[in-house]
Structure formats: C-alpha cells, structure tokens
# Entry
Amino acid sequence: MPNHVHALLTPHVDLWQVTKWIKGASVRRANQILHRSSAPFWQAESFDHWARSGMEFEHFLNYMEINPVRAGLVSEPSQWRFSSWANPATG
# Structure
C-alpha cells in the first residue's frame, strides 16, 4: 500500500523490538529515496493485532491480501507484487 504497511509475523523476540528494527531500517532508506533528511516518516503508534487462532490468522491474511483491491490499486490480489499471492513461495 502506498500509505501504510501490513505484515503478518511470528516474532521470536518482543514485538516492540521487531517494530523498532523495521521502522529504523526502512526510514533511512525511504528518506534517501525521497531526498529528505530527518523528517518524520512513520506514525509514532503502530496498530498491532494478535492472531490467537488459525481462524484469526487466516482472517488477517485475507484482509491484507484484499486490501490493494479495495483501494483500487489492482483488480485481483495476485496483481499486487508485494502480496503473498504474487509470490506463493514466501506466503
């Protein structure tokens, strides 16, 4: 998505550590691409949800895969190059 990120993770460390690493690594590269110095890039808050069952996991996965379709960016999930639909080996 052009204005937000979804990730479905099974962290082996505290979630705050994963979030800090993702935001830290990506903000440097994003600001390079956008030719910005230290402008804020990420919101201070992230919105995490815990999948407590296989059914919830599937719900979150389906939501994430249909999101670019609902946003009008593609007509089907497999067309979104960042989706697990586009690369089933990583899904």
Q: What stands out?
A: Helices lie at 15-33, 54-70.
